[in-house]
Amino acid sequence: MNKSIFIVFIVSILLIVSCATDDTCTQTKYVTLTADFFHVYYNDTTQLKAIYALSDSLTVQGLRLDTLTGKYTPVDSILYNNSPQSTINLPLNNFSTHSTFKLKFKTISDTMTIYHTNLNDYLSLECGCIVLHKIDTVTITRHFIDSVRITNHDVNTINAENIRLYK
Amino acid sequence: MRRIFVYISSILLCLLFITASAQKKKNKPIVVPPDSTVWLNGFSVQADIGSLITSTLMSGDSYSSEASIQMDLKHKIFPTFELGVAGANHLSNDNIGFKTNGTFERFGVDFNLRKRKIDSKPTNNLFIAGLRIGMSHFNYNVTNVLITDDYWGGSVPLNYMNQTSSKIWYEIVVGVQVEVLKNVFMGWTIRNKNLISQDIPGVIAPWYIPGFGQNNGANWGFNYTLGYHFGPKNKFIKSKKILLNQKTTK
């Protein structure tokens, strides 16, 4: 009896010590808007169709509005550099209610502005806080892109499609 | 005719023998097991000296201290009430601060699992198993939560002050209690703690819950107690050998 109690005691001490948790975050914290490219065409029976399409040699870069000059200046980092894409993930500005991007298809460029609201979401002490977004409206210059449609207003850590870009 | 007489007389003899043996069985003394004690065998007051050690082992930035009062009912059932204070002052890897100080209560019951042999003296060394319901209502601060934007640039620190939370949990308790001196007890318990009230998504969830530990949904706990017993203890009544037929005639 005494021996078994002693073993239980030692095992329990080891168990308690091994249960100490570390401070590493295991949750995903990347919040990006997901945009899919669709190609619009007429089929043989002259019906309008849209198919998920690859956009060749695409360059995407954020544009920051300079309040002094009133002009947009590009953000240092380029998100996509002259690469073929059918889906792009765009980070929205955590401290502004609109985010502007320059989309360059070979030689033709479009400027897309996403108007959104921001919501702070506290995850845990280990992970900290992330910012979620809700898309209000999207505007785009129609040089290469024909139109844009919002499919899901909530921008979060789940990479679900938020907008469709038709060309 | 003679044969008939022999048959009837042998049957009568048999019946007489059966009746006599039954009578003999009725008069055999039976042992009434001892219902040793009165319902209330006093109470003990205990202090947990192990929580200070486990606090150091776990992380070093949380503390806990508790005391309990335990009734002794028939030396089998032990209703228990535990009261304590606990707190944490923790800094995460990203320098997010968490601070809390609060009280907690637990109530429940322990059962003595050691079975006593008939006519043996009751022992004060117990092997116990039981259940607890724990609760805590506390305030806490979460400071220096940094919101950054890696692409567009900028960062803002956020502070969530005077957050309030109420938590309820249950504990499965197993342990040992030994009388080391007259009326002085030492013992330990291992506890498996499980939260009943979970965090609502979107709220600023506490990192630490007083009396429960880190807010992980389930925790293990260890208590090492030192206690003193007050009042009567283990009044022992020896088994009485009584004749059943005598008892019934009284």
Describe this structure in words.
The complex is a heterodimer of chains A (167) and B (250). Chain A is mainly beta. Chain A has one domain. Chain A is built from 1 helix and 11 strands; from the N terminus they run αβββββββββββ. Chain A has a 6-stranded antiparallel beta sheet with strand order 4-3-6-7-8-10, with no helix packed on it. In chain A, strands 1, 2, 5, 9 and 11 form a 5-stranded mixed beta sheet that branches. Chain A is globular. Chain B is α+β, with helices and mostly antiparallel strands and 250 residues long. In chain B, β3 and β4 form a beta hairpin. The chains are: A mainly beta (167), B alpha+beta (250). The interface between A and B is large, with 33 and 38 residues.
How would you describe this structure in keywords?
heterodimer, A: 167 residues, mainly beta, 6-stranded antiparallel beta sheet, 5-stranded mixed beta sheet, 1 helix, 55% strand, globular, B: 250 residues, alpha+beta, 8-stranded antiparallel beta barrel, 12 strands, disordered C terminus
Strand content of chain B: over 45%
Largest sheet of chain A: 6 strands, antiparallel
Count of alpha and pi helical runs of chain B = 3
- The structure class of chain B reads alpha+beta
Show unreliable segments of chain A: none
Summarize the structure.
The complex is a heterodimer of chains A (167) and B (250). By secondary structure, chain A is mainly β.
